[in-house]
Write a structure and sequence with these properties.
heterodimer; A: mainly alpha; two-stranded antiparallel sheet; B: 73% helix
């Protein structure tokens, strides 16, 4: 980008593009803080929490890309995570492939899983689809238990290679991958494909009537989402160096949905924010081991009662307003739009669908 | 062997039927996918454990108390957490999942993670055609049959039942006809949770009581409602007995069957969905726009 050619241009870019909107400012400083954190502290426990948060952020965002954008509710998202985790682990252990090869291969295997689930499930809608997808990780888990020679049964596959030698290198791999893949997913959501995904959620029949092959796009959503979730699964298994049945559990699928909806769906940054708030909160609550899950549950319920559309959506609507004329977002403090100088106080005709 | 399969299949099927019919009712009326449904079943099981085994109350009193208290909790949960956000379907889903987790944690706090056994409330057995059927099993079968009959009667023969079915068919028109839709939804929630509570009370003496006992029935219940067709009571009944028997057969006939029982039932569900995407008795209705 041209903006990075000189210091002056960089400053201008910062001023004109990032600091004008509070949400962009927050996102910018969040990325900056993540990248600079190891300069301040090398506390392995803190780094570990952020590594886990990054991995699960990719996972939750990939759920959003499928279920949030296209509205194809997936209750068995752990399938992708688990398939990739087991594939990476077995490839690494049996064939001795290095992590930078096993993780993409695991992710591709998750894409295959996405197609295996997607093709039969495309005929189902709404709650039917949700409940049918719930079944697949459970069935796979039964298969895992019945072939313990390959999968290690209940104990899982252990003795896998580390992601990187040092904790800080691991940290940078996970954080940069999270930021990169998050940006990629966000861009996909903003692209033409993303618009079609949105449209499928709102009114599938209308999309089909406009001559778009919705089946193909839904399969695309399944594969893309499977790929990103697979990357998360591979990273996870190489970080904790074990691939066990817990990667396929119903509770992991539910966890992804909780993170995503808590943060706010159809945003990509919402689920990421959700994970980066809830996962460290869960770790922090370790000081109260007995009631930490209880407190976690109550927090989620209370916040969702006040902000049913998710945290980031609620915050964004508080700090930013849409220009009534040109629909560009503005900081809530502005009296006129930053692009078309329209009066921000004008009555907005509510757009209801 | 065969008689064991028959009795166990009937009992599992019956308990699943109680759960699935309740879930179907509340889905039909309020369009809520209530994941916390089986959590109420767990709460009922714990209550009967507390009353009968800890406090040594008379079994009938313990049963009565459990079946009264749980629906009250259910209605309270509905009013406090589900109703305010009913328009946001996805959020309702998460809230009910979280409610179930909260119940699980409360039970973990109060009772610990141990597996609690309950002695049978009624000891003894009856011989039918040379097969020994314990009173507890017999009671379970009779109660299941009776409750299903009563539910059927309420739905088809009373004013309330007509209101429930009307609301399930078309919420807006039912509202226009002067039915208090949100009250109908609340009452339906009460009925559904009562059925879950009865299922819990029946299961407590037959198996162990533990804080994670809601997960397996949840998966089974979801499979059953999908298999039978969402919102269809008849479908839920049929699905419950099909999967109840399938599960029992797998456990009895295949070694390692306990691992596979869930997976086997779910495979049946997926096969049925592939052939009939709307389930066995579901109506293929045009999607709401």
């Amino acid at each position: 980008m041209a903006a990075f050619f000189s210091f002056r241009q960089m400053r201008l870019f910062l001023q004109k593009e990032i600091l004008v909107l509070p949400s962009r400012t927050i996102a910018f400083f969040f990325c900056l803080a993540l990248l600079l954190l190891p300069l301040v502290t090398k506390d392995p426990y803190l780094l570990r929490i952020i590594i886990f948060s990054s991995i699960f952020a990719i996972f939750a965002a990939s759920w959003d890309l499928l279920s949030g954008f296209t509205g194809q509710m997936n209750f068995g998202h752990a399938l992708f995570f688990g398939v990739a985790a087991y594939t990476s682990a077995i490839l690494n252990l049996r064939l001795g492939l290095p992590p930078w090869l096993t993780i993409p291969l695991g992710a591709l295997m998750a894409v295959v899983a996405g197609l295996v689930v997607g093709i039969p499930c495309l005929r189902l809608r709404g709650p039917y689809l949700a409940l049918a997808t719930l079944a697949f990780p459970i069935i796979l888990m039964a298969i895992v238990f019945t072939i313990p020679d390959l999968t290690g049964g209940e104990l899982g596959v252990s003795g896998i290679k580390q992601l990187a030698r040092s904790r800080i290198a691991t940290y940078y791999i996970c954080v940069i991958l999270m930021l990169g893949l998050g940006l990629l997913m966000w861009k996909i959501g903003d692209s033409k494909i993303g618009i079609i995904f949105h449209a499928i959620r709102e009114d599938e029949i209308a999309v089909r009537a406009s001559g778009i092959n919705t089946t193909r796009y839904k399969l695309l959503a399944f594969s893309l989402s499977g790929f990103f979730a697979g990357v998360a699964g591979g990273l996870y298994t190489h970080f904790i160096r074990i691939a066990g049945p817990s990667t396929l559990e119903v509770s992991l699928s539910f966890q992804a949905i909780i993170w995503a909806i808590f943060g706010g769906v159809v945003t990509i940054y919402g689920p990421i924010a959700g994970v980066f708030i809830l996962y460290p909160l869960m770790e922090f609550l370790r000081i109260l081991p007995e009631i930490r899950t209880l407190l976690f549950g109550l927090t989620v319920i209370v916040i969702l009662l006040f902000m049913p559309e998710g945290l980031t959506t609620w915050v964004r609507d508080k700090i930013e307003k849409e220009c009534p004329r040109c629909k560009v977002r503005n900081g809530a403090w502005r009296k006129t739009c930053r692009v078309c100088f329209a009066d921000m106080k004008q009555k907005v005709v509510s757009r209801s669908y | 062997m065969i008689e064991n399969i028959l009795i166990n299949g009937l009992i599992h099927g019956g308990v699943y039927a109680l759960l699935a019919v309740g879930f179907s009712l509340i889905f039909g009326v309020a369009r809520i996918v209530n994941i916390a449904h089986t959590a109420f079943y767990m709460v009922a099981a714990y209550l009967i454990y507390t009353f009968a085994t800890r406090l040594h109350l008379h079994p009938l009193l313990a049963i009565f108390l459990s079946i009264v208290i749980v629906p009250l909790i259910g209605i309270l949960i509905y009013q406090l957490t589900i109703k305010p956000i009913q328009e946001h379907h996805v959020t309702v889903l998460i809230v009910t999942i979280t409610v179930a987790i909260v119940f699980q944690e409360i039970m973990l706090l109060l009772f610990g993670g141990h597996f609690r056994g309950n002695p049978s409330l009624f000891v003894g057995y009856l011989e039918i055609f040379g097969v020994r059927v314990s009173y507890q099993h017999l009671l379970t079968l009779i109660v299941v049959f009776f409750v299903l009959l009563v539910t059927w009667w309420i739905l088809l023969r009373t004013r309330l039942g007509i209101a429930i079915r009307a609301t399930a068919q078309d919420r807006e028109v039912a509202n226009l006809m002067g039915m208090n839709v949100s009250r109908v939804a609340m009452i339906t929630m009460g009925i559904a949770v009562t059925m879950a509570a009865i299922a819990g009370v029946l299961v407590a003496p037959l198996s162990v009581v533990e804080p994670y006992m809601w997960l397996h029935p949840l998966v089974m219940m979801l499979a059953i409602v999908v298999l039978g067709g969402l919102g269809s009571i008849k479908g839920s009944l049929a699905g419950a007995f099909i999967l109840g028997f399938a599960e029992t057969l797998v456990v009895f006939l295949i070694p390692l069957g306990a691992f596979l029982k869930g997976a086997f039932s779910l495979t049946i569900m997926i096969v049925v969905l592939l052939i009939r995407p709307e389930g066995l008795f579901g109506v293929a209705f045009e999607e709401e726009r």
